[in-house]
Predict the structure.
Amino acid sequence: MKSAIYNPIYVPATVGTDPLIQRLLEASEDGNEYILICTEGYKIDIPQESVLRMIQVARDTGARILYSDYREQLPDGSVRPHPLADYQAGSVRDDFDFGPAILFRAIPVIFDTTEYSGLYALRLAIAAVSPDAIVHLREPLYTSSVADNRASGEKQFDYVNPRNAAVQREREEVFTNYLKTIGAYLPERELLINPQEGSFPVEASVIIPVRDRAVTIADAVNSSLAQQTDFPFNVIVIDNHSTDGTTEILSDIAAKNPKVVHLIPGSDTLGIGGCWELGVNNSQCGRYAVQLDSDDKYKDAHTLQKIVDCFRREKCAMVIGSYELTDFDGNPIPPGLIDHKEWTAENGHNNALRINGLGAPRAFFTPVLREIGVPNVSYGEDYALGLRISRRYRIGRIFESLYLCRRWGGNSDAALSQERINANNTYKDLIRTIEISARKQIVAREMPEDLRMQLQMWDLARDNYAALDNVLKKKIVLKGKTFTVLYNPARKVSTGAKLSKKDIEARPCFLCEQNRPKEQMQEEIVPGYVKLINPYPVFSPHYTIASEGHQPQSIVGCEPDGTPRIVSMMRIALTMPDMTVFYNGPKSGASAPDHMHFQAVPQSRFNPFDGEPLPLASISFTARSGMEAIGKFRMIMESLMKRSENAGLDEPRVNVFMRAIPQEMQFYDGPGVQVLIVPRRAHRPGFYGEGEGQMLLSPGAIDVGGTIITVRKEDFDKISPEILARLLSQTVHFSKEN
């Protein structure tokens, strides 16, 4: 058996899957255990003993991919070393530098079909098995010509070149599939901020860390002071012990303009991130903290207003704008506008792990930034923040130019050594490694073991959970609240449920154990209740928590042992602290009014307690004990029973939401629950139905909590703010403030 192909296989950097597989098959037909693949466009001199050394190390380590350092031969004939960075779990960039010669073990592996991204797809397929299967040998084993001799500052924007758009879209798809394979893919992030949270001296602060920028700092500060806004703002400059006259320039500007806050750190160990941390935690920092580098300028006098408007409009925790490259005097230079249009609301937070930057200017909701902190480094701190925040919160994007990024000899990234490039990329790979690990934990919480087991054995549930990735979404703003509208045809079972007494008596109860699908597992969660995977989910996971006995849906009732149902709900919420637990009344959205049950979905996907307040006449309270919950709940229910829409009913029309009080809100009082009650007018609107002029809309707790479910495409397309207002006004009470 041959050890390897000594004459390398040359392939383009953008080789597709089919030609790559064909070349690999041709090579493996000769019985080669290893195959050396080289990138076209390079002239490579690799001695046979170097190939044997690579094979030896690959065998010793079990590597399926092995790459080594090498030497570059420059156009003048001189040779310089080209060290490479180690591979780690976060080395998922499609432009990770393996060098132009890579040794692959010739064992088949299934990977995505692509037109341009065969090597990337193959590498991720191998990494999905184990990042340890990719080994870096820190020995310069060959010499290669230089295909691209540009400085680092010129190369870093290649991936945003419009000519590469098709390649980038394909690689995003490949990478997204990889995240799903390793359990790190997150659905669209929808957690919002409350723009009214906290008290701040100004609405926004421009944050400028600086050290030794006497040539440019006045331009940056004056660009900030020139902003025209409908809110008060200031400029916080963190002068990190400058020695070139920057301190004197700033002192003079601050003496003349009270908007400028000139800070000099007490410590001399701060990087750019540490300066940011000092600035945002200063008592004079505003509600929003907006980035400006000390050698850049804002595009015009309206940048700050546009950023704050985006925060207010979208209730996002971070806003990222677009910038254009210019020379020192502000003249455009290639590639011009950097808008990062690869970001989408649905997948930007996932794709951000694949690329090396997120854009500028970057702006943050100060309470969130204070909560998570800023890494004390001078490279990659902004990227780390973008990934960390997008893990949970919605990110706002502005795709028009807001910012002038001036390229000049003094830029910190203008012409870096290979060692510095490796160090920077290694740090960003570490950030990604940490982030992927954190996201795996989120996915594990959002798809726990019971759901994994159910999806393995239950075809109906597996198909419906898989379909959640393709659910259509759109946003509708109504009375200041952003509602999400979903098109989820699988939910027609619930939305279209027949609820007359005759229909209910004619069907077997699908929540009773003897009538459930044989695949549906159960787990006792609190006394008297079992947790079931809902096979028709809105979110993942979606639980139904059903009473063990067949008894009518009634939140005001008691369990067979006399325990009030509100206490059972409280026990469930405390047992599932990451979930929003909710109740649909028998006349308020319940599709099984004959069998007592609650439901639960992740707070990260559905949380009516956070973000924008509901524009509905809701009632809320907290309770630290069962007795406190009973007292407050009974008083509210008795008051609601006096309303006309509840005449003749056994309990008022309500939807009830509950969650365990988050750890950061518990203070000294210990655990408890937050309760939100939404009184209802009717179970369904007057236009409910499938006939002409009717819509199949039957709002339950999820709908009134801000996520409207449609089960017909025509209803999804048709629904508008006016129709949504009709739906809610006929089924729910609007608050007096709206």
Notes: The radius of gyration is 30 Å. The chain has a mean pLDDT of 91. The chain has 22 helices and 29 strands. The first strand starts at residue 9 and ends at 11.
